[in-house]
Design goal:
This protein has 631 residues and is of the alpha/beta class. Helix content is 42%, strand content 12%. It contains 23 helices and 14 strands. The strands form two sheets. It has a twelve-stranded mixed beta sheet with strand order 5-4-1-6-7-10-9-8-11-12-14-13, sandwiched between helices. It has a two-stranded antiparallel ribbon with strand order 2-3. Helix 1 runs parallel beside helix 4, helix 8 crosses helix 11 and helix 22 packs across helix 23. The longest helix is centred in the last third of the chain and has 23 residues. It starts with 10 loop residues before the first strand and ends with a strand.
């Protein structure tokens, strides 16, 4: 066929396989991946289903596997070594030292490879959304990615399992999705579309007052839509399906009349969801469909009276069936769509169970005084002062002039000044790691970026196995290219979120891991009882999450409130060279105190920890190192 590339690299796709129930393959990550393969008509990968239970009845499983996807069933022991260190799903290229792991990363890769194989399938690439960012942000920092990739599949699996034994509670994650579908849509041409919608409403006899009345706008729009056969929704549907069928966008027609152009943006009617992320069908819809389908099957069978609580989810479920190729792909992987009754959105009240969703709340502190100085004084009164451990060898440096060119950061596409500073940063980390490492050790470079740390370590420590973990594909591909030039055989590349790496290791390293990513690295190392050498960055992005609360150590918790700790974090970011000297000095002190809290927290869990200032200090405004060794 014209446009199809024949000489693509063969890749293996590894999917977990635990069991099947009523035509559904579990875990749901596997159902989602198979559904995408069928939707894309992707034949590029050799698909291996990995048994998670020895007792799994293979004959029953084979009956529910789609015939269009060639698969083989293997045991976990047959996985390549690199894949054994990751959560599935995972995709591996030959010769096998580059692995992509985790649902979002693997699905995005399937889409890219399908499009590369046949560039005429532009609708497949459109699944990645505007600027190709759909589910690109890692689950550690994006609540939406986390909801789609982790919490909804997991919650639905638990719901299905519990419903077979006892009356089950509606998953909070489903309630969150219903709420998400009720929120106004934000798109890149938002203003233009909302003016087009206003024009459409006025033409249908719906006055501007509907949009101006902030407190009653939703209720009024609902009444109007019932009376006028949904004119307020027709624009969104037209825009969504014109893109799917490659027709002209209705909003890109003529210029709006002057009375429409003069309306303030704040008075324009909001856009409503057609699909999960807004107006357009994306990868998020692919991920959610198998999960929501199996949820609705249970609801219709056992809790049909509760279906009215999810009118927007039911509308989305019906609408997604109109997308070309969805019904075909669904039927091939055992999804028989339900015929749901039409439900009206009768209320925008928050579901009572949504109040149970945990959130980070700032406690009011009547004694709180803003600014870093009162906070630092408060710590000093408790005996906590800015204090750095001495640098073990401040003048040590790698012999950069005699190292292969591909080892140098200059090969990472940066200016000579920045490359020099990067070399100075590497001198500090490499010295500490090489003095700790022993032959046979496994070293992990977390948040590796272009591989500046990992490649140097792999070259300097040929008897150690070095693994680079990075979420951004282009950075890791660049690192692999440099590694190939050096002929390194002791290095692995894993594109994945940090938490999807499950392998054992001895030393964890991270240079300028942003915000709480540094805390995630330290936590990962502590769980493995591994040493860690981290250089934090982006202190201003630190905040309490589902995984961490700040302050972290008991000593700091007894002294500072969350708000006071956040003051330290914000001022710790004020160390840029263009700032006044006095402000930079305060910033450096705040950096030290934030890192001392991290150090104390690790010490409470059986580590010996030092906070060291890198040499020379001019190598980076963020020049702290936290070095921890298990006792």
């Amino acid at each position: 066929m014209k446009g199809i590339k024949k000489s693509l690299t063969e890749e293996y796709l590894y999917l977990d396989l635990s069991h099947q129930t009523e035509g559904c393959i579990f875990p749901l990550h596997t159902s989602v991946t198979v559904f995408l393969l069928l939707y894309c008509d992707c034949k590029i990968f050799k698909v291996c289903l990995v048994l998670t239970r020895e007792s799994t009845d293979i004959s029953q499983i084979k009956n529910v596997l789609p015939q269009d996807v060639e698969t083989q069933i293997i045991s976990r022991e047959e996985l390549p070594s690199i894949v054994q260190n990751c959560c599935l799903p995972a995709a591996v290229e030959r010769p096998g030292n580059f692995c992509r792991a985790g649902l979002a990363v693997v699905l995005r890769h399937i889409i890219q490879k399908s499009y590369e194989a046949d560039p005429s399938k532009k609708e497949i690439l459109e699944l990645l959304g505007f600027k190709k960012t759909c589910l690109k942000a890692c689950a550690e920092v994006s609540q939406w990615t986390r909801l789609c990739e982790l919490t909804i599949p997991s919650a639905i699996e638990n719901f299905i399992r519990e419903s077979s034994e006892q009356p089950s509670t509606i998953p909070v994650e489903i309630l969150q999705l219903e709420k998400k579908l009720s929120e106004p849509v934000r798109v890149h041409n938002d203003d233009k579309l909302r003016r087009q919608k206003l024009k459409q409403q006025k033409a249908a006899g719906v006055g501007l007052s509907l949009a101006k009345d902030k407190t009653k706008s939703k209720a009024c729009n609902q009444e109007a839509s019932e009376e006028l056969d949904s004119p307020s929704k027709s624009l969104e549907l037209e825009v969504a399906f014109s893109k799917l069928t490659a027709q002209e966008d209705p909003a890109s027609a003529n210029r709006e009349p002057s009375h429409i152009r003069k309306v303030k943006a704040s008075d324009l009617p909001p856009l409503e969801h057609v699909f999960a992320e807004g107006l357009y069908f994306t990868l998020a819809d692919i991920v959610l469909l198998p999960c929501v389908h199996h949820f609705l099957v249970i609801i219709c069978k056992k809790h049909s009276e509760k279906l009215v609580e999810f009118p927007l989810l039911a509308s989305w479920y019906q609408r997604i069936q109109e997308v070309p190729k969805v019904k075909t792909a669904a039927s091939k992987c055992g999804i028989q769509f339900l015929d749901l009754p039409e439900l009206l959105t009768t209320s925008n009240k928050q579901h009572p169970n949504l109040s149970e969703v945990p959130g980070v709340e700032e406690q009011s502190d009547p004694s709180f005084i803003g600014g870093p100085r009162p906070t630092m004084t408060k710590l000093m009164e408790k005996g906590i002062e800015v204090m750095f451990s001495p640098h073990p060898c401040p003048t040590w440096t790698l012999d950069w002039n005699n190292l292969p060119a591909a080892v140098s950061p200059k090969e990472g596409k940066m200016s000579s000044d920045r490359a020099l500073r990067k070399q100075q940063q590497l001198n500090n980390l490499v010295y500490v790691v090489t003095n700790q490492a022993r032959p046979g050790d496994r070293i992990v470079d977390f948040c590796s970026g272009g591989g500046h740390v990992g490649i140097v370590l792999a070259h300097m420590l040929p008897s150690c196995q070095v693994t680079l973990i990075e979420n951004k594909e282009l950075s890791l591909v660049r690192a692999k290219k440099r590694s190939d030039e050096l002929g390194l055989s002791n290095i692995w590349f894993i594109q994945a979120n940090m938490e999807y790496f499950t392998g054992m290791f001895n030393i964890g390293v991270a240079l300028h891991a942003c915000g709480v990513a540094t805390d995630m690295v330290i936590e990962h190392c502590i769980k493995m009882r591994a040493s860690f050498v981290t250089c934090p960055c982006c202190y201003g992005f630190i905040q309490s999450t589902s995984k961490f609360n700040f302050p972290k150590s008991e000593q700091f918790k007894e002294t500072l409130s969350y708000k006071e700790h956040m003051i330290l974090c914000r001022f710790a970011d004020q160390t840029a060279v263009q700032l006044p000297l006095q402000r930079r000095l305060i910033g450096k002190q705040c950096m030290c105190l934030v890192d001392l809290d991290r150090a104390r927290a690790a010490e409470e869990r059986g580590y010996s920890v030092q906070v060291i200032s890198m040499e020379p200090e001019s190598c980076s405004p963020k020049n702290n190192m936290i070095v921890g060794v298990p006792i």
